[in-house]
Specification:
With about 375 residues, the protein is α/β, with parallel strands linked by helices. It has two domains: about 10-180, Glucose-6-phosphate isomerase like protein, domain 1 (Rossmann fold, 3-Layer(aba) Sandwich); about 185-340, Rossmann fold, CATH 3.40.50.10490. The protein is built from twelve helices and ten strands. A five-stranded parallel sheet has the order 2-1-3-4-5, sandwiched between helices. A five-stranded parallel sheet has the order 7-6-8-9-10, sandwiched between helices. Helix 6 links the parallel strand 4 (about 125-130) and strand 5 (about 150-155). Helix 7 (about 165-180) runs antiparallel to helix 12. The N and C termini lie far apart (about 55 Å). It comes from Amycolatopsis tolypomycina. Keywords: Isomerase, Repeat. This is Tagatose-6-phosphate ketose/aldose isomerase.
């Protein structure tokens, strides 16, 4: 990544954003070694596949579910651990076997461990694929060696030490796609990622320099999960001083559009799906009319978005939409970091008072009795 004044600085967060293309190659190697064991888990006809995690880890599931479903030819559901823990019975609606895929940076949040334990009680025969950045975390240790589980530990550099998840998000998403056999040219993906990073020195400080009070992120289909992750990065790295909001291209008009004002910048993640792309282009053009060309950013290979500013993302023919999301999220991460620096926030530790923690604290896991389900 290039440097421009305080961008990107020498923070750990900046290095973890910048290292992502190189880490993807090592992630692919780690998954390749685990593939024989993963294939054993997949031999479960009629199983529901449930992707789970909390926060950023939940958004991994939202981003990859569509491509996994298309590749496997069966439904794939993304259900956050926070939802499973609060209402476990809702996650087990019939007697079909479940293949649970857990995403976790550390695996030490209470919900990460509890969600899998609850589903094991409610769904006998549960199989479990754990994709984690920390082989010493509680989730990995609990399931390592279990007969119907496989733990895939990603390379150590993917285990972000900064406050916000960046490398871990893209690393886990890529590993899920590869684990289930989705065809991705990882070397081409890495080259494209470096190109997106090259644009960060120009585009991210320009967005931060406009001093937005709100950043609205919009994406269609699985890119709505990407939009949710982008909004979270904005909130985390600016200590909530820049409010991040997320929606779909079509859903935004149904009330959330009320948030637009002169201190709002809208970011539209342009889908590579030709049909969905039409709706993204429509909302980008509409936003240009509402906010002006300088306050609308299109992340993608846009040429038809009404004069909006464009952050180019190389097209990868044949790549799944989730692969495109791994490239586009770099723009969101870099923007959040630039806003953090512009506000004088320390991105590696935006909450020095501990109000928000890297690993969630304060969650009490209450005893669950299936007989008492209403």
């Amino acid at each position: 990544m290039h440097s421009n004044g305080r961008w990107p600085g020498e923070s750990r967060t900046a290095r973890e954003i910048g290292q992502q293309p190189a880490t993807w190659l090592r992630v692919a190697d780690a998954v390749r070694r685990a593939r024989p064991e993963i294939e054993r888990l997949l031999d479960l006809p009629g199983a529901r596949i449930v992707l789970t995690g909390a926060g950023t880890s939940a958004f991994v599931g939202e981003v990859v579910a569509r491509d996994l479903a298309r590749h496997l030819g069966r439904p794939v559901e993304a259900i956050a651990t926070t939802e499973i823990v609060a209402d476990p019975a809702a996650a087990v609606v019939d007697d079909r076997p479940i293949l649970l895929v857990s995403f976790a940076r550390s695996g030490n949040s209470p919900e990460s461990v509890a969600a899998a334990d609850l589903l094991r009680r409610l769904a006998p025969g549960l199989r479990h694929l754990v994709i984690t950045c920390d082989p010493e975390g509680q989730l990995a240790r609990r399931w390592s060696g279990a007969p119907d589980a496989v733990v895939v530990a990603l390379p150590d550099e993917v285990n972000d030490r900064g406050f916000a998840m960046t490398s871990s998000f893209t690393g886990m998403a890529l590993s899920a796609l590869l684990a289930f056999g989705v065809d991705i040219d990882v070397e081409a993906l890495a080259r494209a990622g470096s190109t997106v990073l090259d644009g960060a020195a120009e585009h991210a400080p320009a967005i931060a320099g406009a001093k937005p009070a709100r950043l609205v992120f919009l994406g269609s289909g699985p890119l709505r999960g990407l939009a949710r992750e982008a909004a979270l990065k904005c909130l985390e790295l600016t200590r909530g001083q820049v409010v991040g909001l997320a929606d779909s291209a079509l859903g935004f008009r149904h009330g959330p559009k009320s948030v637009l004002d002169e201190r709002t910048i809208a970011v539209v993640f342009l889908s590579t799906d030709p049909y969905a792309r039409q709706y993204d282009v429509d909302i980008a053009r509409e936003l240009v009319q509402s906010l002006g060309e300088e306050r609308v950013v299109v992340v993608g290979d846009a040429t038809e978005c009404g004069g909006a500013r464009v952050w180019p993302v190389p097209a990868l023919p044949g790549s799944p939409l989730a692969g495109h999301a791994l490239l586009a999220v770099i723009a969101a991460q870099a923007t959040a970091l630039a806003c953090s620096l512009a506000l004088g926030v320390t991105p590696d530790n935006p909450f020095p008072d501990g109000e928000v923690n890297r690993v969630v604290r304060g969650v009490v896991i209450h005893e669950f009795d299936p007989a008492e389900v209403g």
